[in-house]
Design a protein that fits this description.
about 40% helix; three-stranded parallel sheet; mainly alpha; Rossmann fold
Length: about 160
Amino acid sequence: MPDDLDVLIVSPGGVATSMLMAQVARYKRINDPHDRDGLKHLPRPPRWAPRQKPQTTVFVYGSQEEASASILRRGWLEFQAAKLACPLATISSGKKALQSYKQAIREQRRAWQSEMDKGDDVLCLRYDEIWNRLPEVARHIGIEDPDFVTSFPPRRKRTQI
């Protein structure tokens, strides 16, 4: 695990995480937006060594249907399922694989929500709320520059399958 992260940003995939990461990276040291460090889609909060723990975490989630549709559209279901520690979806196909993947998304959200509920410095952020909660996001991750909010990319219509 890298020991120089300010902010860890995690999601199941398919929920505009890359866009949020690009904006946050202008102000803070974050995990790799292309997941080369294996941190972007963690299925559960890791047990960090004290010197490695980032200052804060943002977990982005969204509709299971929309996230799954995004992953399916890009042909990444098996790959994303592996990242979410869901072997059944990697060895199954069709409805069984998709159901298993959606279950992994639910389990990931519960794990990160539980971490937030324990008082750890985790903000759980639903995709649909990103734009309305930008000031809160900025405060949570310690960005004081108002440009973070004013220059945030506008919400775009989601691509459907």
